[in-house]
Design brief:
Layout (H helix, E strand, L loop, with lengths): L1 H61 L7 H5 L6 E5 L2 E5 L1
Antiparallel strand pairs: 1-2
Length: 93
Amino acid sequence: MTDTLGQQDFGARFTTGVQRVFGFLAKAGFGLFLLVAALAALVATTFIGLMLAIAAVFLTIARPRRRAPVAAARGDNQTLEARRTADGWVIEL
């Protein structure tokens, strides 16, 4: 009788030990997954930031230079005055 009781006790302890080991491994795996996900997000945001910075530099370099208007180059002194109203912009001569 005591021999059967000892086997049940060993089986229960073994099952509990296996559950604890796999529970710890599951928690460690989830923590590792979170660490890898955070690292991937860091790399992705860094890459996107660098792409935006490079695009800004290229847009700054490639923007067209503004030339003087043709009327000003000919010496024409007529200037339009504009003021903002509730309906939009009004141009006055």
